[in-house]
Design brief:
InterPro entries: DHS-like_NAD/FAD-binding_dom. The protein is mainly α and 1265 residues long. It folds into 6 domains: 292 residues, no CATH class; 167 residues, no CATH class; 156 residues, no CATH class; 135 residues; 136 residues, no CATH class; 105 residues, no CATH class. It contains 65 helices and 16 strands. The strands form 5 sheets. Strands 3, 4, 5, 6, 7, 8, 9 and 10 form an 8-stranded mixed beta sheet that branches. Helix 13 packs across helix 14. The longest helix is centred in the middle third of the chain and has 23 residues. The two termini are 21 Å apart.
């Protein structure tokens, strides 16, 4: 975690900021501090001044060496080539030591009105709890000039860094001048190479002081470059290495990578800043940091005050400051003490999933409106910029970088303050909440409670899988005791969301098999029945509403009533369990309770009594509707089946259940009552009474229309005259209770309902006692638009179903049509009719049955320069084209050649596809046709507009297979003229000429040819190396899209090239391996590289040398390095694999030793290679341990041997395993791999490792979690 004080300033680690606040940081100040504002000389400028002051001879060694050193530019990542201390050493050989030191003192004398701002800034930073502690290698007294009463120390009388009484004030580690700037203050004055050698090596007093300092404090170098003599001697004396626990930092100008290279090899973490335009970014940062140091509370208050205006009003680095505050204990405490809490919009900044959420189209009605990218408004300065969105996959979720800051998670600062809980998190998967929150996270939870009444807080929470139980408890207390501050919609949303989170269940299918197993083993019981019914219990699901814009786009006066969307989910196992007869009655009671709960949840969710239902009445053919029907209908159908089965076992129990259904419900229980009336469960009188008792809403509404009509039809003849009279009267005079808002339309609607029901019933054989036709004629006057089709559909099922669209290709409707009108008429008839579920394509049928007539219609259109793509595609794609007579084939080809090239261009794909599908005809009974048609199609393809595509994600292979060039290439590959050729014979001239035609096409079409050629490259090179080297291989070195396409084909084929071809491709392979353009095929690329390096087993010649392979690995990315390690591990797993002997040579001679490769990701994958190496583990671990650091690899785990197979190598080699663990297990327990606890327990029982202090330390860390 890092923070910037200013937009262009350096990124300072959070742990350094916190350590300074607690007095655990020492600022180590060099010449750059005195140079910045006071304009004192740098070390090099000081040398030049002293040379002149002493009057060194023009040919003196000191002057000559200095001028030569000044003429040499520093090397990137190396620094200066000649140390200035050598110059002073030569001066001390030429002059008296006292004269040299006197000249130094005089050269350092400041001007009378010297600017001390930089020194005051460093003193403020060096002061904590009222005590100033600062170390400098500067000889001047400018720090003392800022605060005259400060204690000063110089060698050899240096204070003990562990003594609070001694260690305070300014420590001049290399000595200081006297107050008159005429000589050295004491005998020790470290400026020459001899002085440095004495201070850091022979006498070593400086080294001892620094070691004591580092055992207590963190050190920050300010005003140095990595090649300054003080730094070089100091760090070489300490002999630190990268990853040392003693934290050292250095501010370094330049770009990040070079800064790291200069310092990291000396064990120092570089804090880079842009110095291209001077050192203002550094000093402005230090001034801002000093302001924070003088009063950190006030600084936090100022940042949070600015933050109160909202995240969109702040720059990314200012949002980063807020996240820094919330990432430390003191900052989180200040957050909850604000009089006006920070706005809930800041939840979106804290959450990396929100910062990296998918860009959304603006909430407008305009299709051309620009999309809204939350990252632009929510990101912090340390966030890596996401890649551009793929226009072909606009809804794809962005990947969240692992380095994205997440204050909701425990961090290492929590551990330093003794409150780390491994994997503790405010929000996440409920299974992650097994640990308590740190005090910092508890404060963030309290802030969330403070802002929970804001709609944004609810919107954010709805995006989470869950919140920590402590957070939920806090919010529930707010809902209970502070309910007045919650708007009704937000209050309701929280209640529903908390209810949904509280209802955590195991996956229903898993539980179903557990219950079935128990029933088999133990037998059924009432409790087991309850468990089974519990699998079907409905639950609330709460998601963010997609009907509103992103919160940052809400207007100030918006009242977001629909922040979340609630629905009722009806879980069920995919395979039901049959409940024994003796438990069925109890099961019905339990399932009835589920129905009652469902009704309550639906009403609570919607705020009305209305429930959406589809039909629960199956078709007349007896096929039952599935229990998994949409929504509540599925449980209803399941319940109906249980009641029907119960009636066969215990009719009275079924009656009791039916009689318990409330009659005032118009939806769920009305449906059940209609169902019971329509079946034989109730006698005719009871059934008729049920139907007559239905409310007008239930009787006339569309919800139960199908179910009611079928019930009337099925029981009509059984009803008594009185019941039929009552139902007839209702059909004639009743109506749905339409609202007065519908006005005059109500009568029209009523007539429609009656007409449709009467029509459907009489069509089903129901006989009425009144004149139905006369009544219907009267009703049609009120609704003239009604038709019998409406009545026919009155009882159609509204249950979801898969519908089949039948193809009707009969040409009959156009057979008698004049040739000039055939295409027009066929296009009119070809419109799909979804109502009839028929898709008509008479022209396709004509092309199949009467091809001459179809071609005549196309020819007629061609005479006027037209070639309708739909018609040509239909004609060419029918199977009959494969068996056309040779005369017809020639006629078709002639018609195509006559088309204008622009029209042939428009149908290039169906034409090329046809050519490919009938390739045997072109090479068989119609060999004279292909030549002319080939030329025409190539000419047409040249007319296709070349479009520049960006952000491509698809492979060229996918494109080519569905493009004209891909079909034409396939056509050429089927040419028998290229068959039976031996190696080096060459292909026929006409065949390669056609390949040349494809390669001459512009833009993406050429790339389609290249990817197909790449797929066949090994074969092409074997038969015709001359043509291949001339026409294809040059593209292997291309760094653009042409090269991408060829390599896509090579990697698609995944065939290792033979020796000569590999060598020809090697330069391109090496370049492609380290290119940022490499998009896919890493596994195959890794295989190519490994095979090339392994070489020819017969000659032991490596086609890729150790050095070449190593250079690739150095400059490649982690993804390719990972694939190479994975591939090597896979191939070498078997004990008899010839690759097994290559593992250790690869690690010894090829794998890079560069620190840049020693990333947490690579450490994890090297560790996995070791764990998979079997009996090679000891030797593999010995090779990789020096290259390892704390690992990060989600796929790294320690497999157990509980499956009965051979024990894993970590059990067989405990010493090597401990070496590996000590290298890869970092301080953050949350990053430790799965299964580590078992490994540590096993090591504690092994003789070789049981008493190892490293194991004790790892177990101690584990215990802290």
């Amino acid at each position: 975690m890092f923070m910037r004080f200013i937009a262009d300033g350096p990124n300072i680690p959070d742990e350094l900021l916190v350590a300074r606040d607690t007095g655990r940081v020492i600022f180590f100040c060099g010449a750059g501090v005195s140079y910045a504002e006071a304009n004192l000389p740098s070390f090099a400028t000081l040398a030049a001044d002293v040379i002149d002051r002493l009057g060194a001879a023009q040919d003196s060694h000191a002057r000559l060496l200095f001028e030569r050193a000044r003429s040499l530019d520093p090397l990137p990542g190396v620094g200066g080539l000649v140390a200035t201390d050598r110059v002073f050493g030569l001066l001390e050989q030429e002059f008296e030591v006292s004269d040299v030191r006197g000249a130094v003192a005089e050269a350092l004398q400041p001007k009378p009105n010297v600017n001390l701002d930089a020194h005051r800034t460093l003193l403020d930073l060096a002061t904590a709890n009222g005590i100033t502690r600062l170390v400098t290698t500067n000889f001047d007294l400018l720090f003392e000039a800022c605060v005259p009463n400060l204690l000063s120390h110089d060698p050899p009388s240096l204070p003990d860094p562990h003594s609070d009484r001694e260690f305070r004030g300014i420590v001049h580690l290399h000595g200081r001048v006297d107050t008159a700037y005429r000589r050295a203050h004491s005998d020790e004055f470290v400026i020459s190479s001899a002085d440095f050698g004495r201070a850091y090596l022979s006498a070593g007093w400086a080294t001892r002081f620094i070691r004591r300092l580092l055992s207590r404090f963190q050190v920050v170098f300010v005003g140095y470059t990595a090649d300054d003599p003080p730094v070089q001697y100091l760090l070489e004396g300490l002999n630190l290495r990268a990853g040392t626990p003693n934290k050292l930092y250095a501010f370094q100008g330049g770009e990040q990578k070079s800064a790291i290279a200069l310092w990291e090899k000396r064990g120092v973490e570089a804090i880079a800043f842009d110095s291209e335009n001077g050192f203002a970014p550094l000093w402005n940062t230090l001034r801002a940091w000093a302001e924070r140091a003088r009063d950190s509370g006030k600084w936090c208050e100022n940042v949070l005050t600015r933050a109160a205006s909202g995240p969109t009003e702040l720059a990314p680095h200012e949002r980063g400051q807020v996240l820094h505050i919330l990432s430390i204990r003191e900052g989180a405490r200040r957050l909850i003490s604000l009089i006006q809490p920070l706005g809930a919009e800041w939840l979106l900044v804290l959450d990396p999933r929100q910062r990296y959420s998918t860009p959304l189209r603006s909430y407008t009605n305009s299709e051309s409106a620009p999309s809204f990218d939350p990252f632009d408004s929510l990101c912090v300065d340390s966030d890596p910029t996401p890649g551009p969105a793929d226009p072909e996959d606009a809804f794809r979720s962005r990947d969240i970088p692992t380095e994205a800051v997440d204050p909701f998670q425990s961090n290492l600062l929590d551990r330093e303050q003794g409150t780390l809980r491994a994997r503790a998190t405010v929000r996440g998967n409920p299974h992650e909440f097994h640990t308590e929150l740190s005090r910092r996270l508890e404060d963030i939870a309290l802030w969330l409670r403070q802002v929970a009444h804001h709609p944004v807080a609810l919107w954010w929470a709805a995006h989470q899988d869950g919140l920590h139980p402590r957070v939920i408890d806090s919010i529930e207390r707010a809902l209970q005791h502070d309910v007045k501050r919650f708007p009704h919609a937000v209050l309701h949303g929280w209640r529903m969301l908390l209810s949904a989170w509280a209802d955590q269940r195991l996956e229903s299918d898993t539980e179903r098999y557990r219950i079935a197993h128990r029933a088999t083993q133990e037998g059924w019981s009432l409790s087991l029945v309850r468990e089974l019914c519990g699998l079907y219990r409905p639950k609330i699901i709460v998601t963010p509403s997609f009907q509103i814009p992103h919160p940052l786009k809400w207007l100030a006066d918006d009242q977001q009533e629909s922040v979340v969307s609630c629905s009722v989910e009806y879980p069920h196992p995919h395979e039901a369990i049959r409940i024994p007869d003796e438990f069925l009655s109890y099961a019905v009671e339990c399932f009835r309770a589920n129905i009652d709960l469902a009704v309550a949840l639906e009403r609570e969710n919607s705020g009305t009594r209305q429930v959406y239902l589809t039909t629960s009445r199956g078709p007349d053919d007896g096929v039952e509707l599935p229990d998994r029907s949409f929504g509540l209908t599925g449980p209803l159908i399941h319940f109906q089946k249980l009641i029907a089965r119960l009636a066969t076992i215990d009719l009275e129990a079924a009656y009791r259940q039916i009689r318990s259904w409330p009659s005032d419900d118009d939806f769920v229980f009305a449906r059940l009552r209609i169902w019971s009336a329509g079946t034989g469960l109730l006698n005719a009188d009871e059934a008729g009474a049920v139907l007559l008792e239905l409310s007008d809403r239930a009787f006339w509404g569309s919800t139960h229309e199908r179910d009611l009509l079928y019930a009337l039809r099925d029981r009509w003849k059984e009803f008594s005259t009185a019941v039929r009279d009552g139902l007839e009267q209702r059909l004639l005079t009743g109506s749905f209770p339409w609202s007065a808002d519908w006005g005059d339309k109500r009568e029209k609607f009523k007539a429609h309902d009656k007409l449709s029901r009467l029509h459907w019933l009489i069509s089903q054989g129901v006989e009425f006692s009144f004149d139905v036709q006369e009544i219907m004629r009267s009703l049609r006057q009120a609704n003239p638009e009604w038709s019998e089709r409406h009545g026919d559909a009155a009882a159609d099922s509204n249950a979801p179903e898969v519908q089949t669209i039948v193809a009707d290709n009969r040409p009959d409707p156009i057979l008698a049509t004049p040739i000039s009108e055939i295409l027009k008429r066929a296009e009119e008839l070809g419109q799909p009719s979804f109502w009839e579920r028929i898709e008509r394509d008479p022209f396709r049928g004509l092309a199949e049955k009467r091809p001459s007539l179809a071609l005549a219609a196309l020819t007629f259109a061609g005479r006027s320069g037209e070639a309708p793509p739909w018609a040509w595609a239909a004609f060419l794609r029918v199977d009959a084209r494969r068996t056309d007579p040779a005369r017809m084939l020639r006629t078709i080809a002639a018609r195509l050649r006559r088309l204008p090239p622009t029209r042939l261009r428009d149908i290039a794909y169906p034409v090329s596809d046809w050519m490919d599908r009938i390739s045997d005809r072109f090479y068989g009974d119609a060999p004279d046709v292909l030549s002319g048609l080939w030329g025409a199609i190539i000419e047409a393809l040249h007319l296709i507009e070349v479009k520049q595509q960006s952000g491509r994600k698809r492979s060229w292979a996918d494109d080519a297979l569905n493009a004209p060039v891909g079909r034409l290439f396939d056509l050429l590959v089927k040419d028998p003229a290229k068959d039976g050729l031996g190696a080096g014979n060459g292909f026929p001239a006409h065949w390669t000429a056609r390949l040349d035609d494809l390669l001459d096409l512009p833009g993406d079409m050429r790339r389609h040819a290249l990817v197909m050629l790449g797929f066949q490259l090994t074969w092409l090179y074997t038969i015709d190396p001359v043509w291949t080297e001339r026409q294809v291989l040059p593209f292997a070195d291309d760094c653009g899209s042409d090269g991408d396409a060829l390599w896509d084909g090579l990697l698609w084929a995944a065939r290792v090239p033979q020796k000569r071809l590999f060598l020809a491709l090697k330069a391109g392979l090496c370049a492609r391996s380290t290119s940022q353009r490499r998009r896919n095929g890493n596994s195959v690329l890794a295989g190519f590289l490994l095979f090339g390096w392994k070489g020819d087993a017969r000659t032991e010649e490596r086609l890729l040398t150790d050095i070449e392979f190593r250079e690739i690995l150095i400059h490649a990315d982690d993804e390719l390095r990972r694939k190479i390690l994975w591939q090597l591990g896979q191939w070498s797993k078997e004990t008899d694999s010839h690759w097994r002997g290559e593992v250790l040579p690869f690690l010894r001679r090829v794998w890079p030793k560069q620190r840049a490769v020693h990333t947490p990701n690579m450490s994890g994958h090297l560790a996995k290679l070791a764990l998979d190496s079997g009996n090679l583990m000891q030797e593999v671990v010995a090779q990789i341990v020096p290259r390892l650091g704390p690992a990060r690899n989600p796929h790294l785990y320690f497999a157990s041997s509980s499956d009965g197979s051979d024990p894993p190598p970590w059990r067989a080699y405990p010493a090597a395993t401990l070496d590996l663990l000590w290298a890869i297990l970092g301080e953050d327990i949350a990053s430790w791999p799965y299964g580590i606890e078992e490994v540590l327990n096993t090591l504690s029982q092994a003789t070789e490792t049981a008493s190892d202090p490293r194991l004790a330390e790892l177990r101690r860390r584990m215990a802290l979690s």
